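The authors assume throughout that readers already know how a fold can be written as C-alpha cells. For illustration, here is how one protein appears when written out as sequence plus C-alpha cells.
>
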Amino acid sequence: MVPDKHFQFGGGLQQTLLHPIVLVAMVVSAILILFLPRKYVIVPVLFTSLVVPLAQQIVVGGLHLFVMRIIILVGCGRMLISMVSSQEELLAGGFNAVDKWFTLWAIFRTLATLILYASMPAVIGEGAFLWDVFGGYFLFRFLIRDIEDITRSAKVLALVAILAAAGMFYEKIHFQNVFGFLGGVPIVPTIRMGTIRAQGPFMHAILAGTFGATAAPLFFWLWKVAKSKFLAVIGFISSTVIVVAAASSTALMALGAGIFALCFWPFRKMMRKVRWGIVILIIALHLVMKAPVWFVIAHVDIVGGNSSYQRAFLIDQFIRHFGDWWLLGSFQSDSWGFDMWDHTNQFVAEGESGGLATLICFIAMISVSFGMIGKARKAVDGDNEKEWILWILGAALFAHVVGYFGISYFDQTRVAWFALLAMISAATAPILASQTAKEAVPRVGLLAPRFANRAALAHPAAEGVPSFRWDSKRSERLN
C-alpha cells in the first residue's frame, strides 16, 4: 500500500486531537520553559517532546500544531528572550562545523522539495519541516552547553526510558498500549509472525526500539561520569526492555552496536587502522560475494519475520536508480518495486527527499561529529575521565548510524538525535577551543616582530602569549 499524497508533506489527522492530560502537561511545560532557570529548561523540553505521542495536535486552518512543535516554539521564544536580556553566548562553542552542515542539509532538502513538487502543500509542509528541525536542533544547542547539561539530559532520557519501558512491557503482556488511550498511537499493538511489537508513545515499534537502543550508551555516562549508578542501571535495563518489547532487529543491532563501541575502549588509539580495516573488509566482501555487498543486510535475521531483504533491496534499487533522484530527489520510488515507497533507511530517505546534495550534507554532519569527538579525545589523551566522556558520545552516535540502516526517523525520535548532536558540540567545544589557542601561540611568537598587534605587545603578561620588546635601532627581538 502507498500512503496518500498529503502524507508526503508531513500531513496527518485532519482534526484536533488533544487529550486533556496532554493539554495540562503541555501548558505546565510551557510555563516551566519560560520561567525556569536556563539550565533546567531542558527537562520539560525533552520529557514532553518524547513522551507525548506525535499525533497529539491542534489543527488550525489546515496547520498541524503538534505538541512537540508547540514546545519547540515556546523554547525558541525563551531563547530569543535570552538573546536580548543576557550576555551569555547563544551556542556553546559558537556556530561550529556540525551547525553549518546541519543548516546546509535542511536548506538543500527544503529547496529540493519545493522545486520538485512546486505546490502550496509542499510550501506548508517544508515550513513545518524547518520549524521542527531548525527550531528543535538549535533549541538543544542553546540549552545543552556543558557537561552538567549533558548529565541532566541523560537523566531525563533515563526517566523517559523507564516510563516507556513500563508502558511497553504492559503492552507486551496485556496486548494493550496504555499510551493509545491518549490518542495518536493504536491501543492494540501490531503482531508479526506471532510476536507482539510494542511501540509505546512512538509512531512505530522500530522507532521505539531504536530510541531505547541509542539512549543506552548515555546511561553508561551516568554510571561512569555522573556517578548516578542506580539511575544508570535502571535506565539501561529499561532500554533493554524497550528493545526486546519492540521485537525489532534494527533496534537490537543498534543496541549491540552501542555496547560494542563501548567495549572497543582499549583500542581507542587505533581507530584509524580500524576504519581502514573496515573499508578493506567491505571491498573484499564486495569482490567475493555473488550479490553486491549491501545484501549482507538481507542475512540479518535476529528477530523472526523481519524484512531485512526489503532493506537490502531498497539500497540496491536506490543505487540503480541514481539518475532518478540525484538532482532533487524523487517521488516515484514506489515504481521501483514492491514496498519501495517505504524508506526504511535514513540515508535512502535523505537522497529521496533532497537529492545527492542533501545526502552528502547528512553524511558530512555525521562525519564531522565523529571527527570532533576524535580530535577532542586526542587533545585530552591521558585524562581517562574526559576521554570516557567523549567515547560514550561516540558510542551513542555509532548506535544511531547503525539504526539508520533499518529505519528513517519520522517521529519524536528526531528529538533524541538533535539532543545528541548538541551534546557532542557542548562536550568538544571547550577542548577544541583550548587546543586551537595552544596551536596559535607559536605562530604569534614567530610573527611578532613585524605583524603582531601593538595592543598585544603592550600587554606582555597576557597568559600564554610571549612578551616582546622591539628595538628599532638593532632591529631584533628581545624576550
